[in-house]
Amino acid sequence: MKSVYMDNNATTYVKKEVLDAMLPYFTDIYGNASSKFYRVGREAEQALYTLRESVAKNIGAEHTNEIYFTGSGCEADNWAVKGIAFAHRNKGNHIITSKIEHHAILNACEYLEKQGFDVTYLDVDEYGFVKPEDVEAAVTDKTILITIMTANNEIGTIEPIKEIAGIAKKHKVIFHTDAVQAIGHIKIDVKEIGVDMLSLSAHKFHGPKGVGALYIRNGVKIDNLIHGGGQERGKRAATENIAGIAGMAKALEIAVEDLEANSARCKKMRDRLINGIRTSIPYCRLNGPEDEGRLCNNVNFSFQYVEGESILMMLDMKNIAASSGSACASGSLDPSHVLMAIGLPHEIAHGSLRLSVGEDTTEEEVDYVIETLPPIIQRLRDMSPLYEGVEK
Ligand SMILES: *Cc1c(COP(=O)(O)O)cnc(C)c1O
Predict the structure, then answer these.
(1) Same domain, residue pair 295 and 215
(2) Which of 33, 121, 338, 382 stands the most exposed, by the fewest C-beta atoms within 10 Å?
(3) Distance, CA 161 to ligand 1 centroid (Å)?
């Protein structure tokens, strides 16, 4: 069996068409888009405009100049949070977010708390849903920003962001959403959602790593995060990564074009995995929503009496790449903040496994995981003192 990649929520491979779209910008159209006095510079500038236009169109932005390219999803999130906080601090110092946001949002908020801002971290329900009425109840006359993710990267919960956008609008508060996990899996139209700012990252939808974008609706005042030259209409300095941007634009174009077919395919594999695991492994729990409101490619289970890391190591020996919510990226022993927020006790959160399928995941691969996982869990349970006596 060749290796089976079940970690598409962490990153995805770059598609051939995407790579092909990038290559000319390394060798032929290599000019600096700010160098307008010669042809290769102007070509780069023209390309940048066309690429921006394509990204704008594919997320439903009204104007091309509402797209700002960044170096990652993390940068887009940081910019949204800090840029709004500092630009609007005369008006208020209160920010509303949720307990299950990506660390790019949470840690930016924590940083702002040290700068005198006040942050409300909303609870979620047992499936990871933010309640719109909680958002509304948290709004004060000092609230300057609401930021709630479109879809959660660990447990796949799709948040009611259209409703939340409506609440934000009603109270004249700026609304940002981290849509990094949503692109390519659910339809994203910034106008239809009614969002003021939205983050995306190319490598989560078969584009290259190190390139993202922040949609900023015209009229929203935001401070710079990166100071320097006048790129991105003076709002984000740095010579544009045109090859990366070309890759992102192409990947987005394909993701939008193939959205329905790919999400249907992912969903089929996701459900095959969920059913297969449920029926073959006792003492397991599906984290996140059952079906409605769940990302089409995300599976997240907790297995009692085992450690997530041990599962990952044993899966790796069988050539299966997956992820665990049992410890965060920093290597700390704390379980995932998302699993804690949905109310899992520590010992159950520690035995968690995320399997995220891709549009190319085959039934054969899914079945290989379904065959491989139960004996691994059983072996780990047999070694666990906590499990002793449970089955007897
Ligand atoms: C991956 C991810 C990010 C960070 O994007 P990078 O481009 O890797 O910095 C932010 N938010 C969510 C929900 C993500 O899944």
Answers:
(1) no
(2) 382
(3) 18
Whole-angstrom distance, CA of residue 267 vs CA of residue 228: 44
Residue 149 alpha carbon to ligand 1 centre in Å: 11
Nearest CA to ligand 1 atom 3: 73
Ranges of residues in the chain with a pLDDT under 70 are 1, 326-333, 391-392
Number of domains observed in the structure of the chain? 2
CATH number at residue 153: 3.40.640.10
Residue where a domain stops, chosen among 257, 286, 310: 257
Yes or no: say if 70 and 214 are a contact pair by the CB < 8 Å rule.
yes
What are the pLDDT digits (tens) for 285-312? 999 999 999 999 999 999 999 999 999 9
* 82-104 pLDDT per residue, tens: 999 999 999 999 999 999 999 99
Instruction: Please state the three-class secondary structure of 163-204 as a single string.
Output: HHHHHHHHCCCEEEEECCCCCCCCCCCHHHHCCCEEEEEHHH
Residue 318's CB: how many other CB atoms inside 10 A?
A: 16
pLDDT of residue 391: 66
- Which residue(s) pair with 350 in the sheet? none
Q: Annotated active-site positions, please?
A: 328
Between helix 103-114 and helix 73-87 the angle, nearest 10°, is: 30
Residues framing ligand 1 (Cβ under 6 A): 72-74, 77, 102, 104, 149, 153, 178, 180-181, 201, 203-204, 212
- The pLDDT of residue 330 is 46
